[in-house]
Amino acid sequence: MKTSLFSHSLSKVLDWTFPLHCSFCGDYDILSRKISICRSCYPRSIVPDVQLCEICKSPWVEEAKSCSYCGSRNIFFDRLDYGRIRGERETRILDRVKFREEFYLRFFFRMGLGKKISILKDWRISKISFVPSNSSTLRKRPYLVAEPAMKWISKALNQPILPLLEKQSGELQSGKTFTERFFHARFAFRIRKEFEKKLSGNVLLVDDVFTTGATLNECARILKENGAEKVYLFTLLKGLNR
């Protein structure tokens, strides 16, 4: 009886720090113990029904022999891949992590990454980095949404995670228009002093979501200006704008 009471109490403590029950419906199963989402609420992967650009994974326009993304700007990254297409449920999970501090849901984005390992290995990555947050974001959310996935990738590739970039603008991208995001990103980041003009090899830049791509494209430019041979992107989610 005492053991049962202890187990129940321990379960309650764990459920508060790392919920064992589904964050959406409250049910409990083997999957909810790992990522706080049960099998019933786990979103099915969205499979694009159109051909995608090999570089940016935007819909390919056969008549133009291009995609609207690559055809409308200078692209500094060499290739993008992603974990999942951003659907309604994926957006809700991301929002809960970012704005409701349900940090344990980050482990959802690590699911299925094993299917990507051969692609990542083909890129011959020599170092892994991430898009830095500004100080106000760090105070509210002192963790990266992509951290569990990034650590898994680092271990799988046996390559280090390095803080190559730093934020030099306190403004956020969220809330800005499509055009404003590109102007803001141009002056929002810089290379950290210890890596200035000292990079080499191929860098993998990991982030949570590819929306306009303004931030990631600008970060890729900075990394190449400082010696990176190629810059590859991996995001947890990718919007499929048509």
Commentary on this structure:
- By secondary structure, the protein is of the alpha/beta class.
- The chain has two domains: 1-42, no CATH class; 46-238, 3-Layer(aba) Sandwich (Rossmann fold).
- It is built from eight helices and eight strands, in the order ααβββααβααβαββαβ.
- The strands form three sheets. The chain has a four-stranded parallel beta sheet with strand order 3-8-7-4. The chain has a two-stranded antiparallel sheet with strand order 1-2.
What are the defining features of this structure?
single chain; 242 residues; alpha/beta; Rossmann fold; 2 domains; two-stranded antiparallel ribbon; 8 helices; 31% helix
> What does the radius of gyration come to?
19 Å
Proportion in helices: 25-40%
Arithmetic mean of pLDDT: 86
Largest pleated sheet: 4 strands, parallel
Query: Any low-confidence stretches, pLDDT <50, length ≥5?
Result: 1-8
List the helices and strands and how they pair.
Layout: H1 2-17, H2 32-35, E1 60-61, E2 66-67, E3 79-85, H3 88-99, H4 117-122, E4 125-130, H5 135-140, H6 147-157, E5 165-167, H7 178-186, E6 189-191, E7 202-210, H8 214-225, E8 230-238
Parallel strand pairs: 3-8, 4-7, 7-8
Antiparallel strand pairs: 1-2, 5-6
Helix pairs in contact: 7-8
Short structural summary:
With 242 residues, this protein is α/β, with parallel strands linked by helices. The chain has helices spanning 2-17, 32-35, 88-99, 117-122, 135-140, 147-157, 178-186, 214-225, and strands spanning 60-61, 66-67, 79-85, 125-130, 165-167, 189-191, 202-210, 230-238.
